[in-house]
Design brief:
The complex is a heterodimer of chains A (163) and B (420). Chain A is α/β, with parallel strands linked by helices. Chain A has seven helices and seven strands; from the N terminus they run E-H-H-H-E-H-E-H-E-E-E-E-H-H. Chain B is built from 14 helices and 18 strands. The chains are: A alpha/beta (163), B alpha/beta (420).
Chain lengths: 163, 420
């Protein structure tokens, strides 16, 4: 069962990983600053409390702004299993797929998921079950080409497989 | 079915007669870019592939974000990129003292021509649409892969036609056009789409305005922004680009998701309030907002024309005693030209600091970081929470005219107020 970390609309990559830390090359060290500038961090510190297998759920345009791949990387390093949002900014979406972090765009269905909800994911079936509410959300499959990259665990593995 | 400018460029590079929105394709690219933040992870990914670079003349590496290096960690990252550039004989590696802010430096150095595809590990790579290129930002893995393959995968974007009519009033510039547009359509209004600029108003915009407008296409969520080629484009390219190019125009029956019209005559100087670039307000409404810092520069507004606006306002005036004003020419060439034209004297006489090219303050890197509770008016591109420093600081985005006028008064000020 995965715990939900809930965020709003237009969460930008400066909030996900502030540029003042981008001189840190070690991703484990960098990940200690994940979500540091979010308003939600004033209440509960994400990096200190997130657990392996937790899920980030957000509103519209998640990951807008800078192209820094460090943003999906720090979430992945922190153990985030997948990100579910109403919609994603395109560079973040692409980066997440490329590094093998699953991203699910589910439109306004995202409003059914609240902070603290417990989710059961069936990626193969494309189902998100909100266990404590007994609600099941169906997701749309990824385009075949993108699914292949995701299945390989990212773009590098995909390219290696092609050679 | 007709094609947009972006579709035509993608079709040509993918070796296809036509493409339409939603198609996924693999396409050749003409230039691959990375900087000192995104370069080292891209190099790391590149090395996993175990192939040589696809073309040492078609990779550009620019240390501009934390460079001249702000600390040991930044210096280590720059060294990684420098060592890579030397080992692979990368022609377009730009060292400190010869570099500039990437998105001004590359087109000014003739590295981008109409109809070309440029991908860069920096979201503001979309700037080069001003010269009719299809350019877009990606992450480090994509760029690492492209350094090996010379290709990338693309989803053909749907397009929004932005019809520009009329002529800009005095003191209203490209920055006001793009901030107004983002205010109209929102920060995700063009998400995964192309912003295609057209209409009789295009001819009235200088190249500097077009670069600023395309630069901030990403701030509306767009994949790219693009202008057609006209006499002004050709005048700009002359002496910079000596290879042949094939520019593109949209077909009369090109398909657009929607049309947005902007009457340039009706625009006023605007400011985007924290914490989203869509929060635009007329600059005249900002009298109650006292400021601590002004920054003129960045890939958005560090061109000679931008410095000229700031100099016009600051000539014979002083930066307000409670304001720090930092002015950063985008390239060494621009810096030198600004010196010749007397702008640098004007800035220093007014009490402003002038710096060698760097992205520094725009992303809260260094060279002008804000403390808690401080406010800046900045010609940069983002006003997200904590973007320029402390998470409780604020950034207000504006044109160089408006930023300079605000530096003089100490509060958000429309340029007309100072220049009357």
């Amino acid at each position: 069962m995965s715990k939900v970390w809930r965020y709003g609309d237009h969460v930008d990559t400066d909030v996900i990983i502030p540029a003042r830390y981008l001189n840190i090359s070690d991703f484990n060290e960098l990940a200690e600053h994940a979500m540091e500038d979010s308003k939600e961090n004033l209440t509960v510190n994400f990096a200190a409390n997130v657990k392996l297998g937790d899920i980030v759920v957000a509103g519209k345009n998640f990951g807008c702004g800078s192209s820094r791949e460090h943003a999906p990387i720090v979430l992945k390093v922190k153990g985030v299993k997948c990100i579910i949002a109403d919609s994603f900014a395109r560079i973040f979406y692409r980066n997440a797929i490329n590094i093998g972090l699953p991203v699910l765009e589910i439109g306004t269905d995202v409003e059914k998921i609240e902070a603290g909800d417990e989710l059961d994911m069936d990626m193969a079936k494309g189902e998100i079950k909100i266990v404590n509410k007994n609600i099941t959300i169906k997701t749309k499959p990824l385009p075949e080409f993108i699914q292949k990259i995701a299945d390989c665990g990212g773009l590098i593995n995909y390219l290696k497989g092609e050679q | 079915m007709g094609m947009t400018m972006t579709e035509k460029i993608l079709a040509r590079h993918a070796g296809r007669d036509s493409v339409s929105a939603g198609d996924l394709l693999v396409s050749q690219v003409d230039l691959v870019l990375a900087n000192d933040i995104t370069g080292p992870p891209a190099i790391n990914e590149f090395e996993k592939i175990g192939r040589p670079v696809f073309d040492k003349n078609k990779i550009a590496l620019v240390p501009d974000h934390f460079s001249p290096c702000k600390d040991i960690k930044a210096a280590t990252m720059c060294k990684t990129m420098r060592d890579f550039a030397r080992a692979h004989e990368i022609k377009n590696y730009f060292e400190v003292g010869r570099m500039g802010i990437e998105h001004t430096l590359l087109p000014d150095s003739g590295l981008v021509a109409p109809g070309e595809i440029v991908i860069g590990a920096d979201s503001h790579t979309c700037t080069y649409g001003a010269v009719n290129a299809l350019s877009t930002g990606m992450g480090s893995t994509d760029i690492g892969c492209a350094m090996a393959s010379g290709t990338s995968w693309f989803k053909v974007p749907a397009a929004i036609k932005v019809e520009l009519t009329g002529k800009l009033p005095r003191f209203v510039k490209g920055k006001d056009v793009i901030l107004t547009l983002i205010g109209m359509i929102g920060v995700d209004g063009a998400r995964y789409q192309s912003l295609e600029f057209c209409g009789d108003g295009v001819a009235e915009l200088e190249m500097a305005d077009r670069f600023t407008i395309c630069n901030m296409a990403i701030e509306a969520g767009a994949k790219n922004g693009i202008f057609p080629v006209d006499d002004k484009t050709i005048a700009y390219l002359k002496g910079r680009v000596d290879r042949e190019w094939q520019d593109v125009e949209p077909d009369a029956d090109a398909v657009y998701e929607r049309v947005v019209t902007i009457e340039l005559d009706k625009l006023v100087p605007v400011v985007a309030y924290p914490h989203l670039p869509e929060n635009t307000h007329p600059a005249t409404e900002g009298r109650d907002i006292k400021i601590d810092q002004v920054v003129v520069g960045s890939c958005t507004n560090g061109r000679l024309e931008d410095l000229a606006q700031a100099a016009e306002v600051l000539k014979g005036r002083k930066v307000h005693p409670s304001v720090r004003c930092i002015i950063i020419p985008a390239t060494q060439e621009i810096y030198k030209e600004a010196m010749k034209l007397g702008y640098i004297d004007t800035f220093i006489d007014a009490g402003a600091a002038v710096s060698t090219p760097t992205c520094g303050p725009c992303l809260g890197g260094y060279m002008g970081i804000l403390a808690a509770g401080e406010r800046a008016v900045s010609t940069t591109n983002r006003n997200f929470r904590g973007r320029m420093g402390h998470v409780d600081s604020e950034v207000y985005l504006a044109s160089p005219y408006t930023a300079a006028a605000s530096a003089v008064t100490g509060y958000i000020t429309s340029p007309e107020e100072v220049m009357k």
